[in-house]
Structures are given as structure tokens and as C-alpha cells.
Amino acid sequence: MIIVEEAEKIILSQAGDYGAEIIPFELAAGRVLAENIKADRDLPPFNRVTMDGIAVNFDAIEAGNSTFKIKATQAAGDEPVEIEDHDQCIEIMTGAVLPGTADTIIRYEDLELRAGLATLVTHEIKRGQNIHYKGRDKKQNDVVASIGQLITPALISMVASVGETELRVQKLPRVAILSSGDELVDVGHSPEPHQIRLSNSYAMKAVLREHQVDAVAMHLPDDPEVIRKRIKNCLENYDVILLSGGISMGKFDYIPKALEELGVEQLFYKVQQRPGKPFWFGKHPKGQLIFAFPGNPVAAFMCVHRYFLPWLNASLGKEVKPQTRAVLNGRVSFPHPLKYFLQVKLHQNEYCQLVATPVEGNGSGDFANLTDIDAFMELPSGRNEFKKGEVFTVWPIV
Questions:
Q1: Distance between CA atoms of 60 and 368, rounded to whole angstroms?
Q2: Which residues are within 8 A (CB) of 364 and not within 5 positions of it... i.e. 6 or more apart?
Q3: Which of 51, 85, 309, 364 falls between 20 and 30 A from 240, CA-CA?
Q4: pLDDT digits (tens, 9 = 90+) for 311-343
Q5: pTM of the entire structure?
Q6: What is the pLDDT of residues 158-209, one digit of tens each?
Q7: How many C-beta atoms surround the C-beta of residue 228 within 10 A?
């Protein structure tokens, strides 16, 4: 049995590289960028007006002018209209190109417009106001998005603005989710008193879908030959297998033997944690990875977030961000020599601190409790008591 940190280290050491692919930029949200994106021109590409009003040359104001003749009206997208005399102005709209002969924008709120004239009603005018200058954001050929960035709606907007219609993104691993046990029946069936409906595989599939991975889910009966054949098939067709159940010491836990027969090397078995102690991790000689989680719903759910998602992010080369930490909002006792993943509800207090309130459940089989929590708080081993106000790492699940 190994500690959590060692399990994490072993798993991350197996981070893979599944290559890259090119997809339409509008379909890339949620993926990880596999190329640097550069500006094809300055951003903004011209001196851009930021307020509706008039464009003037500030020298005229310094010379004492307070009333200007409106020469023309210029909308966004129009070619700029130039001022010929200091007593002239251009009525201009937000987003328009600043005329070369003007250097200041005066908003409508600071003007009185009448009979083709614009008169200042304030003296609080500064040269160069209300202008977004060319190249202020980025210069041509500057990197506007980098390898490893998560593609967000904001980044989609950026790449569209520089004319990128396709993006090179990291390929996602092919994942199969296998649940085991004759006690499980599908969602659409009415279970017998001794049976339960499948839920772990659907939960894990939903978690992966939030990270753009479309996993295939299937069920294994308690039949050693069927288990071996299906795992063999998955090893031939998928990069990663996530297993739920069938890895403990029970009489019908056939999965460890099947993995051994198929040449999968055990990298560790059992982690000093609760929930999720009977966690098995291994690797096939051809590189396929197996995450064999306990069958208990809370344990499987926690392990997906604590171990699989960090591995996935590392495999995709995703930018590493500091792990979230929160203040414990209550006293917690845990009299076991294990790292404890406490179920918590998160909120922000009046001091803008992230606060984690413990949510009591009925053990690792209480999957109903998962609907009431936002995260697992990782409480270190070697202690029995944890005080309100202490700060620990949290692993959000939403």
C-alpha cells in the first residue's frame, strides 16, 4: 500500500502524448491548444473610437474653441472623414476609425447639438481621450494564444479576430469505462430486491464529457472468461480503461487475474486514503493504462477527480494552475492513519475566502450525498483532529 503522493507521482509519470489534430475553430471550445496563435495585424488594427460623440483636434480647444461645425457623420466601418479646419468636427460612432486629423473624442453627454453645431458643456476634456490606439493590445506577429491553453469562448473570439478558421488541438485519449458485477442492471430496467442500477459508469462518463472526452461505457458480468475477452478487446481499441469494481479480495473479483493474464503490469495496488483505498493502477506493455477504481460510488467519483483528471491534463499539456485551497468550516475527527477526502460544500465568505463546509454522509456507498457537495477536501494523514479555520487543498467536482 502506498501514500497518495506516491500514487499521484506514479500516475503522472505515465502521462502520454496522443498527438494533435486540426478542427474548425468554432468547435474547439474546451480543447487544449497545440500551437501558438499569432496576430495577423496590430490589435486594434487602427485608432479606434470608444465613445459616441464628435472627433476634434485638441489644438482647437487649447486655442479657445468651444463650438464646432459638424462636417460629416462617420459610422463604424466607414472610411475616415478628415477635418479641414480647427472649427470643424466629425460626428462619430463607437468602433469607427479615428480620422488622421483628429486626436480627441468628446462624448455626446458633454455636448449640446443644435443646427449643425456641437458646443461643449464641460471643460473636463483631455487630449487623446476615448481612443483605443492601434496596436495597444497586441502588435502584428505577437502571440495571442499559447500551446497548452484551454480554449475558452474568449479565446475563440480572439482566434476569430486574427483570422484563424482552424486550430491545431491536442488529441484526446480513447477511453473505455467498464463496470463489473452481476448485481448491476441497466438504468431502464427494474431491479430485483437484490440488484441495483448502474450508476458509476454514467457518472464517470459525464465527468469525462465535461472535459471533452467521449468515453465508451460497458458492463462486465461476473464471468472470468467474459471479463478477460472484453478487457482484451478494450486493450486493442482504447488508450485508457477505467474500471469500477471487481478489484478487491472478494471471491468474484476476477479483474486482477484477467489483467495479469493479459500482460498488464501492476504499478500499485491500494492507497492510504479513504474513500478509495483498494485502487489499482497498471500499464500494458503497449502503453495502455488501467485505472481500476473501487466499486463504491463515492470512492470511484473521488478517484476520477483526484487521479484521472490530473493525468488527463498532464497528457494534454494543459497549463498547470495552483491547486484550489479552502478554509475548513467546522471541526472534523478522523481516527484512522489514512489521508481523508472529506465531502464539502464550498462558498465564499465576506472576506472573499473560499470556505469548505463538511457534508456528512453514510460512507463510500452514499452516492446520494454527492448531489449535495461541491468538492472533496484533502485532509492529511497522521492527524486525528482538524480544526475550523485551517486551510487545506480541495478538489472541486463541479
A1: 72
A2: 274, 275, 276, 294, 296, 297, 298, 299
A3: 364
A4: 999 999 998 888 999 999 999 999 999 999 999
A5: 0.87
A6: 999 999 999 999 999 999 999 876 566 576 667 666 655 566 788 899 999 9
A7: 18
